[in-house]
Write a structure and sequence with these properties.
The chain is of the alpha/beta class and 142 residues long. It has one domain: Phosphotransferase system, mannose-type IIA component (Rossmann fold, 3-Layer(aba) Sandwich), CATH 3.40.50. It is 48% helix and 15% strand. It has 6 helices and 4 strands. It has a 4-stranded parallel beta sheet, sandwiched between helices. The radius of gyration is 17 Å and the shape is globular. It starts with a strand and ends with a helix.
Length: 142
């Protein structure tokens, strides 16, 4: 099973893991990282860079690591981008609960194609529900 790191601005990472545990139970292979919880973003990037390196170094070299971050272009994602040459890991931006659940239940070994498929499924799960309701109402009126 791959090691999963959930890293976000503020306490979002802890909160989404609380939701995951409620739905799926305890997950031993997930670590979270909450950046800037003290509100200091100016000096924080230097600080989190070292913390993220230590976090990645805590996993055995031969084990797969999936890093899910909240925001593409955000400082947390950007700090992980700087570390992509340090060791192999998969970096995915745009964290949501559906995507996280897919990684939790993913097979032991992931291919790039499998990861792309999981991302596509997560994108498809983002739906403007009002439109669905309107369509159902239209169909029911016939």
């Amino acid at each position: 099973m791959a090691n999963i790191v959930v890293a976000t601005h503020g306490n979002f990472a802890k909160g989404i893991l609380d939701s995951l545990r409620l739905i799926c139970g305890e997950q031993e292979n997930i670590t979270y990282f909450c950046a800037y919880v003290d509100g200091d973003m100016e000096d924080g990037e230097t600080q989190i860079s070292g913390e993220l390196m230590d976090l990645l170094d805590s996993f055995p070299e031969d084990e797969e690591v999936i890093v899910l971050v909240d925001l593409l272009g955000g400082s947390v994602c950007n700090e992980f981008i700087k570390l992509t040459g340090r060791r192999p890991f998969h970096l995915i931006a745009g964290l949501n609960l559906g995507l996280l659940m897919q990684f939790v239940f993913a097979p032991e070994e992931l291919t790039k194609e499998m990861i792309e498929d999981m991302i596509d499924k997560a994108r498809a799960s983002i739906v403007y529900v009002n439109q669905l309701v309107d369509r159902v109402d239209e169909l029911d009126s016939f």
